[in-house]
Amino acid sequence: MKPLLEARDIKVSRGARQVLSIDSLTVDKGEALVVIGPNGAGKSTLLLTLAQLIRPSIGSLYFNGHSQSWDKTLAYRRQIGLVLQDPLMLSTSVANNVSAGLRFRKVGRQEIERRVSHWLDRFGVLHLMHRPAHQLSGGEAQRVSLARAFALNPAILLLDEPFSALDTPSRTRLLADFQALLTETNQTTIFVTHDMDEAWLIGHQIAVLLNGEIRQKGAPDKVFAHPKDPDVAAFVGLESTILGKVVESNNGWARITVGGKSLEAVGDVNPGQDVFLYLRPEDVTLWAGNALPQSSARNQITGRITSLLPRGPLVHVVIDCGFIIGALITRASLRDMDLTQGQSITATFKASAVHLIPL
Amino acid sequence: MELIREGIKEAYNLLISLDPEVLQITWLSLKLSGIATLISLLIGLPIGTLLALGHFRSRRLWMSLANTGMALPPVVVGLAVSILLWRSGPLGGLGLIYSPGAIIIAQVIIATPITVALTVSALQQLDPKLQLQLKGLGASHWQLIWHLWLEAKLPLLAALMAAFGAVISEVGAVLMVGGNLRGHTRVLTTAIVLETGRGEFALALALGIILLLVAFLVNMTLTWIQQRAKKA
Question: For a surface tag, which of A91, A255, A311, A316 has the fewest beta carbons within 10 Å of its beta carbon?
Answer without folding.
Answer: A311
